[in-house]
Fold this protein.
Amino acid sequence: VYLDHNSTTPVDPRVRDAMVPWLGELHGNPSSTHRFGRRAHGAVERARDEVAALLGGDSTEVVFTASGTEANNAVLFGVGRDTGFSGRIVTTALEHPSIQEAADRCAKRGMEVVTVDPGADGVVRVETVLAAVDEATRLVCVMLANNEVGTIQPVAEIAAAGRHRGVPVLCDAVQAVGKIPVDVQSLGADYVTLGGHKFHGPYGAAALWIRPQAAFSALLVGGGQERRRRASTINVSAVVGLGEACRLAREELAERRDWLEAMKARFEAGLAEIAGAVVHGRDAPRLPHTTHVAFLGVEGAALAIRLDLAGYAVSTGAACSSGKVEASRALLAMGTEPAEAIASIRVSFGLTNTLDEVERFLPVLAREVAALRAHEVRA
Ligand SMILES: Cc1ncc(COP(=O)(O)O)c(C=O)c1O
C-alpha cells in the first residue's frame, strides 16, 4: 500500500491517455510554423490555459519547466544574476533543498541569506519573516505547504507586506497545488512554482507562474521558447499531461480534498490509540493528506523499513547519510528534540488509497512500533 504521496503520486490514467498520442502518432516541434508544429503548439497552449485556469492567472504568465527544482532554481539564480549577487535573500528553514541549496550558492557568490525558523507548530510567523526583510532584500522565499510536516504557511500576508515594500516573493507551491486551492491573485506572490508529479501528472513536467510586473532572467538561454523565459524544445507529451492533471485537479479539487481529509482524520484518530505518538504541527493548518508523526523511543528509519516489509510504503523525514541517521531539518527548526525528530515517519495519503487500507494499516503500525520498543528495551 503506497502511503508516500508527498514523494510522488501515480500518474492518473486520464493523464496518461492524454499524453500517449504525443509519444507516437502525433509529433511536431511547437516552434515550427508548418502544420505539424502548429498542432503541437495548439496542444501546448491548451495545456498552458489549464495551468493558468487552475492558478487563477493568465496563460501568458506560465512558463513550463522540467521540474519544480528547476523552477525554484530559475527564480533564485535569476535574482542573483540581476543583482550581481548582492543584497539579501530571506528564506525559511522549512524550504525544500531546491530553494535552500540555491540560496546557499547565492550566498557563496556574495549574497546575504537570512533563514527564518518556524514556530513549534511548523508555521513561520509573518512578523519574524518581515523583521528579516531590510532595504537590501531582493527576494523572500516562503513555501505554501511544507513537504515534510504539511503545514501551510501565511504566504498571502507575507506577500502583501512584500508588495508594500517592493520586495518580490517566491512561493514554492509544489506540495500545495492539486491538494488545496491555490489562487495566485489572493496569494499575491510574484513567483509561484508547481510540479505535475505531486498531483497525478507526469514526472518532469512543472511550471513557474510569473506575475506580469515581476523581473525575470532566464536560467536556460538559447532558443526563444516560452517568450524567452526558458530556452529548450518543449516536452510536448509531458506538458500535455501536466495540463490534463491541472484540469482534473481544478474540476475535482473539493471532492479530492474531502476524501484525503477523511483518510487523514481516520488515521490520526487511530494514532491516539498508540502510546507516545506525537503528530507534528497537529493543530496548525495542514495539507489534507499529510501526517508526520513521532513514536517516542522508536527509530523512524527502522520503523519505515519494517512497515515496508509488512507491505506499507511510508517515508521518514530523516536522511540517512554515511551510515548516520540525521534528523529532519524542518523538525529541528521547529524546535523538536533530535530524539523525537529521528523517531518520526511521514504518512501521505493519495486518491487511490481507501479507508479500508487506513483501517488495516493502523494495527500493523501499532504492532511494528511495539516490536521496535520491545527491541529497544531488550537492548
Ligand atoms: C516543496 C517542494 N518543492 C520542490 C520540490 C521539487 O520538485 P521536483 O521533484 O519537481 O524537482 C519538491 C519535491 O519533493 C517539494 O516537495
